[in-house]
User: Fold these one by one.
Assistant:
Number 1:
Amino acid sequence: MEEGEGLRRPALRRTLAAGAALAAAIAAWAGSGAAGGEPGATSATRTFRFTYSVAVRHIPAGARRVSIWVPVPQSDKHQQVLDVVVHSPLKYAFTREHRYGNRLLHLTANAPLPDSIELQLEAVVSRRAYRVLGAKGQAEGSDKPGPQDLGRDAMVPIDGKIAAAAQQATAGAATPLEKARAIYEYVTSSMTYDKTGEGWGRGDAIRACDVRRGNCTDFHSLIIGMARSCGIPARFVIGFPLPEDRKQGAIPGYHCWAEMYVEGVGWLPVDSSEASKHPEKREMFFGGLDANRVAFTRGRDLQLEPPASERLNFLVYPRVEVDGVVFTGVAQRFSFAEVGT
C-alpha cells in the first residue's frame, strides 16, 4: 500500500521526474512497437494529462467520518500510466480492489469535519490504438481469464432470456471467434443508443435484452452475458472517452466497452455502442480500439478496499460515504490536455 498526505508525499511522482524523464518515457512508449496496432494507424498514440476532480459539499454537521474512493488508471498492454499526482488536504492511500485488481485512491477524514472537501487526481497516460485480429506478433500474454469472467454478475445473468438470445445469435457459428463475432453483430444491429426513459446506464442485461435501448453499459452488459452463456469469458472495461477532434477540454462523462477471451487470440475488445452510432467503424470495433479513450477499471460487483458499505455495480465516478452511508452531495469534473511528444 502506497500512502501519502496532502502534497507532501505524491507517491508516484518520485518514480518519474517531470520534464526530460517524462518526455523520454513518452517517447519510449510511443515507439515501443505497436504490433497490435490498427492497420494503417500503427503509430496512433495519444499522450495526455487526465484531471479527475472531486468536491464533497455540505457534509452534515455532527458527521464523524468521511470515506472517499476514486479509481486510478493503471498500465496494461495498451496504455501506459507515466505519472500520477494527488492534490488533497487529506491523508490518502493507494489500494487494490479485490475481484479484478483495480487500483484505487482511498481518502478518509474524521471529526471534526469541514463543510466541504476537494481533491484532484492527475494522471499522465499514453494510449495506443490496437487491433488483435491479424496483428503480427500478437500473443495471448499472461492476462488469462478468471472464474469471475465466466460467471453471472448481479445485473448480468447468463441463463434464461440471455442464454436464449445467445443461442439465437450464434446459430451456425462453430468456433468461439465466430460466436464472439455473431454476438457482437447481433447486439450492434438490434440495440439502439438511447438515453431516454428509466433504467438505462446501469448495465442491466435483462433490460437491454427486453427494450433494446440504452447506453454503452447496457450494450456491453448484454454482450458479456451472452458471451458467458456460450462459455466465452468476457469482462467489462470502463473509463473515459477523449474527443477525437480536440487536444484539450472537459469530458462530460464515462465510456465503456467489453472484452471477450478467445484462445489463440487473447482478449478481444469490442465497442458495440460506438459501432452502433458510427456504422463506418463497425468492422474496426470488433477486435480493435482507437486511442481516443482511457481505461480506469474492469469488472462488475466490485469489492473496494477498504470495504465500502456494499459491492459496487461498477466504478468510474467517485464513491463517497459519510458514517458508512452513501453520500450524494458530490460533484465531479473531468478534463484532459494532450502532452507533446
Number 2:
Amino acid sequence: MNRGRNFKLLLAAILVVGFTLRVAYFIWAPRDYAAAYSDYDDIAQNLAAGKGFSLDKTITGRSPAEPSGEVQTVPVVSRTPAYPFFLAAIYKLFGRRLRLVYLIQTVIDMLSALLFYFLTLRVASSARVALVAVFIYALYVPFISQVAVVLNETLFNFLLLVFAFVAIHAVDKPSTRSFLAAGAALGLTALCRPTTFFFPAVFLGAVLLKYRRRLGPLIVPSVAFVVGFVVLIGPWVVRNYVVLDYVGFVGSLAGEQVYGALNQWRNSDTPLPVIPEQMQARLADKSDVERNRILMREALKEILRDPLDFARSALRRTLLFWTGIGIGGASFFYFPSNRAGAETCVFASVVNIVLIAFSVLAFVRFRGAWTRYSLIPLLLLGYFYVVHLPTYGPMRYSMPVIPFLMMFASLGMVNLLGKARTAPS
C-alpha cells in the first residue's frame, strides 16, 4: 500500500514540475509565433467573427506583382477544422488572449502526460517503467515549447494518445463497442491534423492479419471502426466538396509540402522547402485547391522522372525526421534561426538518439509479455515515418509519436537495471 501511495505521489510531483516548466516557458517565450507563421489563428478569428471557416486574402490585380488591394474572405481547406474551432471557442468566450491559449494547452499537455502514464502502465505492467516514461515526457524540451505556439501540436498529441489507448484495448479485446470508439477517436484525431487520414487502412490491415485465423468475429467490429471514423470526418469531407469542389482527405497543403521538399533537397542553398518563383507566378491566380492539384501533379512527375535521386535522399530525410540531423542549422520548427532553436535542436537530437537506442534494446534483449500490446505504437511509429518521407519532415512531424519511443526506451532502461516490477494494486 505504501509503495502504491509513493508511486502516486511521484506521479503527482512529476506532473506539477511539468506544469510549472511549461507555464514558466510561455511566460518567458520570446515571441508570438502565431502572428508570423500560423494561419490557424486567422481562421479562428474569422470563425469567432461569424465569417465561417475562411481566410481574408488580397486579390491580385493585373499581375501577381500588383495586388489590387481588395480583400475578400474566402473559404479554405488548407487546414483541418478541430484546432481552429478549439481556438475560436476560446476567442469567442474570452477574446484573443494568447497566454490563455497557452495555459489551456499546458493543461491539455499535462492530461496527455497523465494518459501517457496509464498507457505505458497498460503496456509495461510496471509502475516504475510508467513513471520513468512520464518523467521523460514532462522534461522533454520540445513538448514544453509546443504549448507556447498557436499550432495544433499539443491538441493533436493528446488526441493521438487517446486513440492509441483506446486502440490497444480494442486490439487486445475486440468488440463492436471498442472498435467503434477507436474509429471515432481516430476520426477526431484526423480532424486535428490530416496525417492520420489513411491510418484506418493500416490499422484494419494489421488487425485482420493478427487475427487471420479467426476473422469471422472481427467483421462487425471492423465495420464499426469504419463507421466511427466516417461519422466524424464525413461532415468535413462533404463540406469541402460542396463549398470548394474538393475531394481529398489531407488538406490543400500536401502538394506544396511535397513539391517544396523536392526543391529543397535538390538545392542545398535552400534551407527550407520553398516554391520557386517561376512556379509561384504560375500559381498566382489559382485557388488553394487548384494550387494543391498542380503542385502534387508536378511533384509526382519529378519523383517518377528520377526515382533514384528521391531514394538517395531517404537517409537524410530519415535522420532529419527522427533526430534533426541532416540539414544545416537548427531544424527544430519553432525556432528556425535563434540560439534557443539551435539549443533545442541539439537537446532533442541527443535525447532522441538515446530513446531510439534504448527502444531497440528493449525489443532485442527484454522481449516479454509487454510486446503483445506493442502493435499500435509500432504501427504509428512506422506510419508517421513513411508518410513524411516525401515531405520536408523536420523533428516537428515526429513529435506526436516520440512518446511511444519514450515508452519503449523506459522499458529498456528499467529492465537493464533489473528493476521492472508489476505495478502495485
